[in-house]
Amino acid sequence: MNLIAPLITPDTTLLDMSFSSKKKLFEHAAELLAQTHGLKSTDIFTSLFERERLGSTALGYGIAIPHGRIKGLKDASGAFYRLKIPIEFDAPDNQPVSLCFILLVPKDANERHLQILGELAQLFGDDAMRSKMLAADTPSELIALLESWSS
């Protein structure tokens, strides 16, 4: 069992989406996750956007892990986006992002938040896994890939 697979559902696993900017991506994710958790989309968007202003959450290799702390959220949650057209994310390798895991954690999360981020970095650092994520045909197939992965 890993920490990542339980964070997403078929409803929060979106494949071949198109956005003109990371701001538009954050707006979409904020709406989606607000509906899923009964939260305010403005709170989610603000948290993601403010974190991104501190420094890009892009890791390189076409990967980004935007994340934010959300008041009123009980457990960590996420949304997985595979983008049809990669978007600019100020990545360290200057590559646009095509795989994006948006992570929300409770306002007071500490150790678990860092464990999840570390595991996401390991997952996305795996070349074979990235290729499989890019090739998955359905959200269920992508979730099964994440469930089968271990660090």
Unreliable stretches covering 5 or more consecutive residues: none
CATH superfamily: Mannitol-specific EII, Chain A
Dominant shape: globular
Distance from N terminus to C terminus (CA atoms, Å) equals 10 Å
Could you tell me the CATH topology label: Mannitol-specific EII, Chain A
Domain PTS EIIA type-2: 6-149
Pfam families: PTS_EIIA_2 (PF00359)
InterPro entries: PTrfase/Anion_transptr, PTS_EIIA_type-2_dom, PTS_SugarTrans_NitroReg
GO molecular function, one term: protein kinase activator activity
Walk me through this protein's architecture.
The protein has a single domain (8-146), classed as Mannitol-specific EII, Chain A (3-Layer(aba) Sandwich), CATH 3.40.930. The protein has helices at residues 22-37, 41-54, 111-125, 127-135, 139-148, and strands spanning 13-17, 58-60, 63-64, 67-70, 77-87, 97-106. It is 42% helix and 23% strand. α1 (22-37) packs across α2. The mean pLDDT is 94. The chain is globular and about 35 Å long. Strands 1, 2, 3, 4, 5 and 6 form a six-stranded mixed β-sheet that branches. The chain contains five helices and six strands. The N and C termini lie close together (10 Å). This is PTS sugar transporter subunit IIA.
Topology:
Blueprint: E1 13-17, H1 22-37, H2 41-54, E2 58-60, E3 63-64, E4 67-70, E5 77-87, E6 97-106, H3 111-125, H4 127-135, H5 139-148
Parallel strand pairs: 1-5, 3-6, 4-6
Antiparallel strand pairs: 2-3, 5-6
Helix pairs in contact: 1-2
Question: What keyword list fits this structure?
Answer:
alpha/beta; Mannitol-specific EII, Chain A; 6 strands; 23% strand; globular
